[in-house]
Amino acid sequence: MDIRKTFKKWAAYQQTVRELASLDNRQLNDLGINRTDINRIARDHANSL
What we know:
Helix content: over 70%
Largest sheet: none
Structural class: mainly alpha
Shape: elongated
Oligomer: single chain
Distance between the termini: 12 Å
Strand content: under 5%
Number of strands: 0
Number of domains: 1
Number of helices: 3
Radius of gyration: 12 Å
């Protein structure tokens, strides 16, 4: 895997975690997400790139 793709995935993971973590529990619940799911969701998103 080339370094650019690795960096793009890492950046996407970090941004997703940051954005989801900034939501309060009610907002996460409205999206059907538990706070414990954030890292998995971010990882899944980054791996889909």
